[in-house]
Amino acid sequence: MMMTWHEFATEAPELATAVRARFEAATHHVLATLRAGGAPRVSGTEVQYKDPDLWLGSMSGAVKARDLQRDGRFALHAHPGDPDGGSMLEHGDAKLSGVAVEEGEDAKRAAFQEGEVPHAFRLLLTEAVLTSVEDDQLVIRSWRAGAGTSEVRRT
């Protein structure tokens, strides 16, 4: 089962708000795709929220676009670094996974300015995870499409 960003945000609003804040805190993020042989590949990327969806754009001929066209499964990690050298875990470390679906010209124009990106992928979500440190505990909040949310605390 896969859901749009909006469906996820409706089902788990507090988690979606925190995850979105992590993705909006920086411009560049880390995308994991699958190479033709099945090995993972990581690339830098940017994402864009345009309700009801989360979008990823790509330049023409980029290996990440070719990977996603062949096999849309992805994992996306919000920018893990902190420009001030502090810990990002105080605000949470966010990750998403799911399937990227390349959309045609009409959808691309609705999500991006015309001509801005040759490839536009709508990100359908299967999982969202936010890991943070609270009161000296590692807190892992997660959501899975069709299974709802859960929380694990570790000391």
Description:
The protein is α+β, with helices and mostly antiparallel strands and 155 residues long. It has four helices and nine strands. Strands 1, 2, 3, 4, 5, 6, 7, 8 and 9 form a nine-stranded antiparallel β-sheet that branches. A hairpin with a 2-residue loop joins β7 (119-134) and β8. α1 (5-11) packs across α2. The radius of gyration is 16 Å and the shape is globular. The model has no long low-confidence stretch (mean pLDDT 90).
Tell me, briefly, the overall form.
globular
Class from helix and strand fractions: alpha+beta
Strand content: 35-45%
Q: So how many helices?
A: 4
Radius of gyration: 16 Å
Largest sheet: 9 strands, antiparallel
Assembly of the depicted chains: single chain
Helix/strand order: HHEEEEHEEHEEE
Low-confidence stretches: none
Rounded mean pLDDT score: 90
Number of strands: 9
Distance between the termini: 32 Å
Helix content: 10-25%
